Amino acid sequence: MTRTPDADAGAGAADEGREGPAGAGAGAGAASVTGAAGATDVADRSHGSDRSHGSHGSHGSHGSHGSDRSDGSGATGSSPLILTMLLLTLVLLQGPIRGLLSAPVMQSWMTVFVAVLVQALPFLVLGVLLSAAIAVFVPPSFFARALPARPALAVPVAGLAGAVLPGCECASVPVAGALVRRGVTPAAALAFLLSAPAINPIVLTATAVAFPREPGMVVARFVASLLVACAMGWLWQRLGRTDWLRTPRRSPHEGQGRGAAFWGSVRHDVMHAGGFLVVGAMAAATLKAVVPASWLRTAAGNPLVAILALAVLAVLLSICSEADAFVAASLTEFSLTAKLAFLVVGPMIDLKLFAMQAGTFGRGFALRFAPATFVVAIAGALLTGAVLL
């Protein structure tokens, strides 16, 4: 067939169109307007090329999806395998496990462990809910307006505010950081940080329930904790330096809606405080059921050793203040003053609090503030215990 000039022009335009998307559209348009034979020929070649490229692209896409699926199946397939192996192990070892749990020591351990958890958990949940509500719905500007302008007077007022506004350790640190950002004197913010987890109504109620025959323990805990909080505030006002305290960053819940911030705070505090409660209950059960009674009597027989031992134990266990009274009450070998030291030291300085203070106010602050708080808390517990217990 003899090709017309118009057809040749259409074919040439289509050939140029294969080099780019714009040219392809122009070539296809020219070929459709010009001779039919040339257009059909070019269209066939163009579609053939598109099909070949499309097939290669689709195969590549399928290959990548296939690799993704294989990776995902490998990751998800390992979890059922681990669970299956764990269940098989438990089934195979059910005889020895049953025998271990039926031993008198383990039965005593489980009794103490469950008793501490059951008694402490309601107060822990209530304290976390109220603490999250205070942190989210009470603005820091409220504290700034309520506190006196003079730092010496602001410290005891901030300390007493902890008795009115319930808050656990996990919430008191961010609230104190927000106070410092709003311009509240650091001495008052630190007094609130120490007093709020120790003397709020939930903690004092839990202490009364844990020590039903020792009402003086509630008064002693309130007085000793408030005394230590004010003493540390005044001590910081007197000796603290500005470069020791880093300006806190914004809380991760700031900027969220109130509902999201509330439930985010509740989830965070329940996970942290609940985990430490389990560890504390396990430690109390171990001390009660596994550690020889002669060792505990030896430690409890020396008043100074007993106080130091329980103070260090409070730091290591890091139990939430809403639940620590039940752990202290289970340590029947120790004196009331030693238990008071446990209850005063724990809400003010422990491992999780040290990490939170370092993250909020800086490591330099925590390295100076934590040891001083530990020493002052022990001294406050000794003084209060000698007078009230």
Number of helices: 18
Tell me the radius of gyration: 35 Å
Which structural category fits the helices and strands? mainly alpha
| Shape call | globular
Sketch the major β-sheet: none
Order of helices and strands: HHHHHHHHHHHHHHHHHH
What integer is the average pLDDT? 75
**Number of extended strands:** 0
Helix content: over 70%
Low-confidence stretches: 1-76
Proportion in β-strands: under 5%
How far apart are the first and last residues' alpha carbons, in Å? 118 Å
Q: How would you describe this structure to a colleague?
A:
The structure is a single chain. The chain has helices spanning 5-17, 21-33, 36-92, 94-101, 104-137, 140-146, 151-164, 169-181, 186-199, 201-210, 215-239, 258-289, 293-301, 303-317, 324-330, 336-345, 351-361, 363-388. The chain is mainly α and 389 residues long. Helix 1 packs antiparallel against helix 2. The radius of gyration is 35 Å and the shape is globular. The model is unreliable at 1-76 (pLDDT under 50).
